[in-house]
Amino acid sequence: IYFISPKQTTSLPANSEKNYEKSLQKVVSPEVYIKHPLQNRWALWFFKNDKSKTWQANLRLISKFDTVEDFWALYNHIQLSSNLMSGCDYSLFKDGIEPMWEDERNRRGGRWLITLSKQQRKTDLDRFWLETILTCFQKELFSNYNDDVCGAVINVRAKGDKIAIWTTDFENKEAITHIGRVYKERLGVPPKVIIGYQSHADTATKSGSNTKNKFVA
Ligand code: MGP
């Protein structure tokens, strides 16, 4: 990154605006004035549990962004997950995909689920969620399987918080196992701790409290 010293600016040709702009382009790196684009445009959603309304009516779009700078501006402006009331969610999804089972891109999909103990809200919740978001942004991490990623969800719950990455096709074993392996590694989950992948269809129709795993990592 180069900066213009006062000396340089005064020595620029005073008569030509074009020349001035050209000189400026030479000395100021684009890094300084161009925001860093993300591979996708993302939408952040918020869910607040109001029992008088339907599940879908409780879901609100907060904002969309497609640069690193706009993400941090938003992230620094909103509450940390650990400060939210129980029953709330954040969902971060690629623009055009609604954060619900019913969306065309989620209908046949599922999620890698991280379940946290109550104690982990203090120690792990916020950093796991941020790491989940940054993992989704980094295209090269999921390599060829990036298109399978739909988004990520955090559920703040009294019984234990949950974080998940949602993918589009529960039959795409290759993509799912790759994403699961990378995700587990990124969070620093010890190898002996098993995480599970469940289809939304199973989650939506489950009768007991546990949905069966289609895959584990
Ligand atoms: P939840 O908020 O995902 O988990 O689902 P929670 O609160 O920990 O509950 P548990 O059942 O996993 O223990 C709670 C309820 O919200 C579901 O049973 C559905 O009624 C509703 N719900 C959740 N999701 C993600 C959806 C969705 O995508 N579409 C619809 N229509 N309802 C949903």
Task: Tell me what portion of residues adopts beta-strand conformation.
Answer: 15-25%
**Adjacency order of strands in the biggest sheet:** 2-1-3-5-6-4-7-8
- The figure for the number of domains is 1
Q: Please report the distance between the alpha carbons of the first and last residues.
A: 43 Å
Bound molecules: 7-methyl-guanosine-5'-triphosphate
In CATH, what is the homologous superfamily? RNA Cap, Translation Initiation Factor Eif4e
CATH class membership: Alpha Beta
Structural topology:
Layout: H1 6-11, H2 17-27, H3 30-33, E1 37-47, E2 59-67, H4 68-77, E3 89-94, E4 110-115, H5 120-137, E5 149-155, E6 162-167, H6 173-187, E7 196-199, H7 200-205, E8 215-216
Antiparallel strand pairs: 1-2, 1-3, 3-5, 4-6, 4-7, 5-6, 7-8
7-methyl-guanosine-5'-triphosphate (MGP) binds at residues 55-56, 100-102, 155, 157.
Family: Belongs to the eukaryotic initiation factor 4E family.
Pfam family, one: IF4E
GO biological process, one term: regulation of translation
In short:
This protein is of the alpha+beta class and about 220 residues long.
Overview of the molecule:
The structure is a single chain. This protein has 217 residues and is α+β, with helices and mostly antiparallel strands. It has one domain (37-216): RNA Cap, Translation Initiation Factor Eif4e, CATH 3.30.760.10. Helices cover 32% and strands 24% of the residues. It is built from seven helices and eight strands; from the N terminus they run αααββαββαββαβαβ. It has helices at 6-11, 17-27, 30-33, 68-77, 120-137, 173-187, 200-205; strands at 37-47, 59-67, 89-94, 110-115, 149-155, 162-167, 196-199, 215-216. An eight-stranded antiparallel beta sheet has the order 2-1-3-5-6-4-7-8. A hairpin with a 6-residue loop joins β5 (149-155) and β6. The longest helix has 18 residues, at 120-137. The two termini are 43 Å apart. The model is unreliable at 1-10 (pLDDT under 50).
